Amino acid sequence: MKGYLGFFLLIAVLTAYMWRDTFDPESVRGARVLITGASSGIGEQMAYHYAKFGAQIVITARRVDAMKKVVQKCVKLGAKKAMYVTGDMSDPADPERVFKYAAEKLGGLDFLVLNHVGNTNVELWNGDSDHVRSLMQVNFVSYVQMATAALPVLETSGGSIIVVSSVAGKLASPFVAPYTSTKFAMNGFFGALQNELALKKSNVSVSILILGLIDTESAMNKIRGYTTMTAYPASEAALSIIKAGATRQREVYYPWFHYFTCLINNIFPFMKDLLLSGLSAEYMD
């Protein structure tokens, strides 16, 4: 037991050192930023933080009226530039089109923030493989398309790709099989890309953000009745994402303790089985 306690204490100390806050707001002043999925939720909050730091911002989503309001607020908050472009990431032609628009309007790019997510229900697996296929296009393939288009531009600027992922991409979660499969794919691809860029001594960084439950309206509506987990503020999550990208961290967890959630699951996988057995009994009653 003492050996395990010492191990976890060492991990905690190393984690605190690695995740100490070294963010300098000046590092993003004037930066050219493209944020996907920014008409609401975490993406909207990221746009506001970047605006306060004086960045140049292009946001994209499907809802024009919502994006117009976000852009107007960004200008009031101090954005050097703020624009929007509509994009439907279920259309394979849109990811590259959106990127090209942003790079042209901003004269290059410093941060590509991949945050959009497709619609899926919280329910037991219903056998709908077509839904998995379409969700993969939005949640995974479009991320790969945008990152691929952006790499030559980001290589020139020494820029960063920021990937918003989830604890569901580290722990196979019940009731969200299609969603969690897309997040596992995302973590795998961008983890491999980090290693390949390091091998090539590229000056492009990739930051992967592993988020827990965030209190966005969409998430709260979907999980009602399925969990009593605490949801954390979208604004705080958005700021942690921006800081991670600006300081070029490889992987960051928000809230921070989910690092240990995933670590403990890897060391003691049977604990999840115990939790799920209790959940199963509760769900089936």
Describe the structure.
By secondary structure, the chain is of the alpha/beta class. Helix content is 54%, strand content 14%. It contains 10 helices and 7 strands. A 7-stranded parallel β-sheet has the order 3-2-1-4-5-6-7, with helices on both faces. Helix 5 (129-157) links the parallel strand 4 (111-114) and strand 5. The chain is globular. It starts with a helix and ends with a helix. Residues 276-285 have low confidence and may be disordered.
Summarize this structure briefly.
This protein is an alpha/beta fold. Helices cover 54% and strands 14% of the residues.
**Whole-number mean pLDDT:** 89
Order of helices and strands: HEHEHEHEHEHEHHEHH
Q: What global shape is seen? A: globular
As residue ranges, the low-confidence spans are 276-285
State the end-to-end CA separation. 37 Å
Main pleated sheet: 7 strands, parallel
Query: What is the spatial order of strands in the main beta sheet?
Result: 3-2-1-4-5-6-7
Structural class designation: alpha/beta
Percent strand equals 5-15%
Number of E strands: 7
Tally of alpha and pi helices? 10
Alpha-carbon Rg, integer: 19 Å
Helix content: 40-55%
